[in-house]
C-alpha cells in the first residue's frame, strides 16, 4: 500500500475499507459477547490481553478496528469486575510504512502498541500469544502471482493482465489454488499463535459459488458490501 | 538518530556503540549465567521469553546485542533440557526510522520481532511482560533540555551551547537534575514491565565523582571505554 499521508496514500484512499470496519462492528460486538469466554480465555498471568491486526496498512482504519475490539472486550471484563491491560500488535509486510503508522497512533490510546513486520502467511508470533486475531479486507492479497498465469505456454496464461474477470477458467483455477495455499498457511500460523479459547475475526471479500467469470468484479464488490465475515472461537 | 543507510546515517556511524556492545558481551553472558534464575524466572505460560532493547535506533548494533543475549539465554535453557521461543521488541522514539530497522532484520533470525514506538521514560509495555530489558549507550539522552539552561536570566543559562564542558556549575546541576528525573522515570516504568526474577542490562556512559567540568568530555569517553555497566536482577 502507498505509505505517508499524500494524495495517493492508503490513509487518504481507504474509505471503502473503513466502511467494512464500521459495518462489522455489531458483528464483532456480538462475537465477543457470545463467543469469547473470559473463563476459558483469561488474559495472560500478567493480566495482559493481546490483539493483532493482520494487514494493518498505515491507518487510520486499523486504529478504529482495534478500538472497536478493545471497547467490546473491556465492556465484557468490566461486567466481571476486572479489566486487563491491552497490548495491540499492528502487523503488515516489512515494506509497509510503519513510520507513518506509528506517527499517527491515537494520542491517549488505551493500549500499548507494537508493530510486527512480515507476511501473515508465515508465523509472526510465539505460540499462544494472541487472544484476538483480526484481519479486514486483507486476506484477498495473495503471496505471489501463480506461475502458470505468467507462463505463455500454459492454458492459464493471463496475457499480462492482473485481473481474471472474463479470463479463461484455468486462470480462475490458478488463482483459486494459490488462495487455497495462502489461506491454509495463514490459518496454520494463527492456529499456533492464538491462545486456546481466543477469537479470530476475518472480513474477506468473496464471490458466491457458480458465479461466472464475467461477473466476478461486480459480484465481488456486491458480496463485499454484504460483508461476508467470519468469527471463529478457538476451542 | 539519522535513519536510512546513507553516509550520515546512524547505521554507518555507530562503530563506537558497536564496540560497547562487543565489550559488554562477556559481562552479559556472566550476568545471565549467574543472575537469571530460570527457576524463578520461567518464560510465560506459552513458553515465550521476551526481551526488549530500549533506544535501539536502526541497527545493526541492536541486532547484535539481541543475538548475544539470546545466545546466552538459549545456552542456559538448553542445559535444563528445554528452550523457549524468543520475542524481541525493538524500541525507540516514534520518530525513529523503524522502516529501515525492519528492512534490515537479519534473515534466518531465531526470534519473532516487533517494533515499539515511544519514549523509554514512559510505560511502553503491559505489566510483567519482559524477562530481559536491555539498553546500550542510550540512557544519556535526556527527555528535554532543562528549562533554566535556556533562560537568559538564570545562573544556569548555557549561552546557547549544547554541551556543559567548561560551563558554570549551575549548568551541570541543571543537567544532572534532569537526568535524575529521567532515570527515575525509566526505572519506574521498567519496574512495572519486567517480570519478577527478570534481568535489566544497562550500558551507560558516565563520569567519576568530583571530575571538574573542564574534564567532562575527555572523562566521559574514558569511562565510556572502561564500560561502566550494570546488570540488575529484579527480585
What descriptors fit this protein?
homodimer; 235 residues; alpha/beta; Rossmann fold; S-adenosylmethionine-dependent methyltransferase (chains A, B); SAM-dependent_MTases_sf (chains A, B); MeTrfase_7 (chains A, B); methyltransferase activity (chains A, B)
Helices of chain A, by number, come to 5
Number of domains of chain A: 1
Radius of gyration of chain A: 19 Å
Low-confidence stretches of chain A: 221-230
Q: Name the shape of chain A in a single word.
A: globular
Classify the fold: give the CATH topology of chain A.
Rossmann fold
CATH architecture descriptor text of chain A: 3-Layer(aba) Sandwich
CATH C-level class of chain A is: Alpha Beta
Strand content of chain A: 15-25%
GO molecular function, one term (chains A, B): methyltransferase activity
Protein name (chains A, B): S-adenosylmethionine-dependent methyltransferase
Organism (chains A, B): Papaver nudicaule (Iceland poppy)
Pfam families (chains A, B): Methyltransf_7
Give a short summary of the structure:
Chains A, B: It holds the Pfam family Methyltransf_7. With 235 residues, chain A is α/β, with parallel strands linked by helices.
3D structure, described in words:
The structure is a homodimer of 235-residue chains. Chain A has one domain: Vaccinia Virus protein VP39 (Rossmann fold), CATH 3.40.50.150. Chain A is globular, with a radius of gyration of 19 Å. About 4% of the residues of chain A have low confidence. Chain A has 235 residues and is α/β, with parallel strands linked by helices. Chain A contains five helices and six strands, in the order αβαβαββαβαβ. In chain A, helix 1 packs parallel to helix 2. The longest helix of chain A is centred in the last third of the chain and has 25 residues. A six-stranded mixed beta sheet of chain A has the order 3-2-1-4-5-6. Chains A and B meet through strand 2, helix 3 and strand 3 of A and strand 2, helix 3 and strand 3 of B. Chains A, B: One of its GO terms (molecular function) is methyltransferase activity.
Amino acid at each position: 500500500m502507498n505509505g505517508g499521508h499524500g494524495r495517493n496514500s492508503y490513509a487518504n484512499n481507504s474509505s471503502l475499507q473503513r466502511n467494512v470496519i464500521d459495518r462489522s462492528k455489531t458483528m464483532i460486538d456480538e462475537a465477543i459477547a457470545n463467543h469469547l469466554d473470559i473463563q476459558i480465555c483469561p488474559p495472560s498471568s500478567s493480566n495482559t490481553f493481546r490483539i493483532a491486526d493482520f494487514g494493518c496498512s498505515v491507518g487510520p482504519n486499523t486504529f478504529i478496528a482495534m478500538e472497536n475490539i478493545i471497547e467490546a472486550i473491556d465492556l465484557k471484563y468490566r461486567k466481571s469486575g476486572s479489566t486487563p491491560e491491552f497490548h495491540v500488535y499492528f502487523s503488515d509486510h516489512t515494506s509497509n510504512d510503519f513510520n507513518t503508522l506509528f506517527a499517527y497512533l491515537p494520542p491517549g490510546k488505551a493500549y500499548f502498541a507494537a508493530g510486527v513486520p512480515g507476511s501473515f502467511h508465515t508465523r509472526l508470533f510465539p505460540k499462544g500469544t494472541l487472544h484476538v486475531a483480526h484481519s479486514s479486507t486483507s486476506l484477498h492479497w495473495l503471496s505471489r502471482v501463480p506461475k502458470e498465469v505468467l507462463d505463455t505456454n500454459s492454458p492459464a496464461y493471463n496475457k499480462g493482465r492482473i485481473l481474471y474477470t472474463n479470463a479463461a477458467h484455468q486462470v480462475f483455477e490458478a488463482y483459486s489454488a494459490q488462495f487455497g495455499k495462502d489461506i491454509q498457511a495463514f490459518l496454520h500460523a494463527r492456529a499456533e499463535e492464538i491462545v486456546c479459547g481466543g477469537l479470530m475475526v476475518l472480513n474477506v471479500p468473496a464471490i458466491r459459488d457458480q458465479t461466472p467469470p464475467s461477473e466476478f468484479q461486480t459480484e465481488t464488490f456486491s458480496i463485499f458490501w454484504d460483508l461476508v465475515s467470519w468469527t471463529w472461537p478457538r476451542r
